[in-house]
Amino acid sequence: MIIIDTHCDALLRLQLAKRGKPYGKNPLSFRDDSQIETSVKRLKKGNVKVQFFAIFVDPDIPDNQKWQHAIEQIDLFYEEVLGNPEMKHIRSWEDFDRLQEGEIGALLTLEGADAFGNDISKLRHLYRLGVMSIGLTWNHANLCADGAGEPRGGGLTLLGKEVVRLNNEHQILTDVSHLSVKGFWDVMELADYPFASHSNAKALCNHPRNLDDSQVRAMFDKGGMIHVVFNPPFINEGQKKASIDDLIRHIDHLCSLGGVRQIGFGSDFDGISYYVKGLEHAGKYQNLINELLKYYKEEEVKGFAYQNFLRNRPSM
């Protein structure tokens, strides 16, 4: 069964390796390096048909260097990811339908508006380069909003609201996965295309990165998608271990809130340090599919794997 995965951090991993840390002095090969959890080799093995690639700039990077770091990751996307003949750049929602047998779609996203600061011209440039989903924050605060880890818990700034409006205008997804609770509700008021690229159910794991039931219902009521994340601390509260069945509990809960046709996968491969047993990299995706088929109808599992996203994506 084919897969659409809406979040990985392979670009950051490739960038760190190119800069000589923490993977040694030699750059990593996106094609088949064992240190890349979403390598071409593993995407093929796991039957991943589309992989979203996040641009993420560490908040500790000085502000005057953040744009350069983002551009470096985009360059790696074009050179290292798209440099493989199987990888095809998705730049529009219609491109999903144009993928041929043996091709894997690659799509750029932005995790945190820190990269463009308050420069809307840089944001427009990201649109032109193919960014199709934007999360306003990572866990900290920036000029657009407070993140899930910011104690202040503020919502969107005027700049953040302008970014959401521009996302709407360009049919770009607005990702709520790292937002503060107030920021989430601000987005829900404004966004035409709300989206959680990698979040789980707070009712089962009380972590600030997860969504509570009222947020989940609001997402589903507005036609938004929630993609479950494979990071054990977001699956089992206070733990670094999780099983596939533990992850399925989150899918069960989201389904109980009406989301059977609005759930997907956002692994966070290449960005996590702990793993679901049997789901340690993209090559093992079919382990999850096989387990889901024990509990759900095949059509429902196809929905989780790829059809829900295709059904709910923005339409031109």
In short:
By secondary structure, the protein is α/β, with parallel strands linked by helices. It contains ten helices and nine strands. Helix content is 35%, strand content 13%.
Question: Please, could you describe this protein's structure?
Answer:
Strands 1, 2, 3, 4, 5, 6, 7, 8 and 9 form a 9-stranded parallel β-sheet that branches. By secondary structure, the protein is of the alpha/beta class. It is 35% helix and 13% strand.
Fill in the keyword field for this structure.
single chain; 316 residues; alpha/beta; TIM Barrel; nine-stranded parallel β-sheet; 35% helix; 13% strand; globular; Dipeptidase
User: Which structural class do you get from the secondary structure elements?
Assistant: alpha/beta
User: How much of the sequence is in beta strands?
Assistant: 5-15%
Radius of gyration in whole Å, from Cα?
Answer: 18 Å
Please provide the count of β strands.
9
Number of helices: 10
Biggest sheet character: 9 strands, parallel
Helix percent band: 25-40%
CATH architecture: Alpha-Beta Barrel
Question: What's the structural domain tally?
Answer: 1
Round the mean pLDDT to the nearest integer and report it.
97
The CATH class name reads Alpha Beta
